[in-house]
TrEMBL record:
Alphabetical list of InterPro entries matching this protein: ATP-grasp, ATP-grasp_carboxylate-amine, ATP_grasp_subdomain_1, PreATP-grasp_dom_sf, PurK, PurK_C, PurT/PurK_preATP-grasp, Rudment_hybrid_motif
A Pfam family this chain is assigned to: ATP-grasp
Any one annotated GO CC term: cytosol
Role played: Catalyzes the ATP-dependent conversion of 5-aminoimidazole ribonucleotide (AIR) and HCO(3)- to N5-carboxyaminoimidazole ribonucleotide (N5-CAIR). Catalyzes the ATP-dependent conversion of 5-aminoimidazole ribonucleotide (AIR) and HCO(3)(-) to N5-carboxyaminoimidazole ribonucleotide (N5-CAIR).
The organism of origin for this protein: Aliiglaciecola lipolytica E3
Taxonomic lineage: Bacteria, Pseudomonadati, Pseudomonadota, Gammaproteobacteria, Alteromonadales
Name of protein: N5-carboxyaminoimidazole ribonucleotide synthase
Quaternary structure (record): Homodimer.
Alphabetized HAMAP family for the sequence: PurK
Superkingdom of the organism of origin: Bacteria
Originating gene: purK
Any GO molecular function: ATP binding
Binding site for ATP: 93, 133, 138-144, 173-176, 181, 204, 258-259
Catalytic activity: 5-amino-1-(5-phospho-beta-D-ribosyl)imidazole + hydrogencarbonate + ATP = 5-carboxyamino-1-(5-phospho-D-ribosyl)imidazole + ADP + phosphate + 2 H(+)
Amino acid sequence: MNVLIYGSGQLAQMMYLSAVPLGIKVFAVNVADHTVVDPISKIKLDMSIEQAIDLADVLSVEFEHVPEDLLEQAQSSGKLYPSMEAILTGADRVREKNVLEKLQIGNSKHQIITHVDQIDEAVAQLGEKLILKASRDGYDGYGQWRLSNKQALPELKQQLAELDLQTVPLIAEQMVPFDRELSLLGVRSLQGDIAFYPLAENLHYQGQLHVSVAPAPAIDSQLTEQAQSAFTKLANEFDYVGVLAVEFFQVGDQLLVNEIAPRVHNSGHWSMQGADTSQFENHMRAITGLPLGNTQANGKCAMINIIGCDDYSTDLLSINNCHLHLYGKSVRAKRKMGHINLTGQTYPELAEVMTTLAKYLPIEHFPKLLDEADKLAQLD
């Protein structure tokens, strides 16, 4: 069985590593230069994309920002999972909002902005605290602008006036006073079977995910049912195959969808050590027609992103229940260099491992780690 992944970054690498024990061969497309590469070494392979598509039994993606000409070619093969429609929806906030409204899935109140003067109307309708998001190509806090009060509106409009909002509209969202951020990863098979991972709690810093804890603390059946209902509606709408991530704001006892990601997701990396079957293996299973694996968490798990640094001590590997995953990248500000998975049977046990880990890290690059450990230490 051969699988071709569009995108050749760390997610393709981790899919490759999960596929090897299943007898599945994975190769990847570098979408920047339209070459076919080995997902681990990044060495170019002696084949064209057309030849790779012919060789592959299944095509998939590691991220949603794949050029549309490549997606059209992939979709026309009849081998692409998830579908081009699902991928494009994940890549475009206007499409995403339209689908959420169509399916009556709760999300932040919003307006679509195609001209800078429409921001005045958005303020009138939604209030003066807004977050404006580029509808395409925004991630990790990029392509976002915040409005805290009306006095800052003229300066913001002047800044946004330089953008081509007809080509790439903005989504003006009411700034939600959420209690926390959660995400649900699920997987849907070719046969339509669905399996859910437990909800994860996500801690962001400067718009970028730093820590995920799974299962998220203080989750009741009502929150789980809301999240799984939203996932199921989306998965059925797209006849989805593979892993799908849905990110939420929790506001009291209500979940509002923040965004969707039609792929394996950073907030699911904990599953590599924290579940019987990782998100990467389950994606491979789903798109190749194999039975889905067990998604239940084995105890408690934390995933800590390594961002913009490499000056940690590899002696952290001496810590029990600590697993290091590096992506082989050169250091750059805000760049995800790898992640660390920690496990424990209870939240206090997990907190103890997190606190020990901090001794091996340049803590200024891990601003959420110790605060989260303190919180988890107080839980049963």
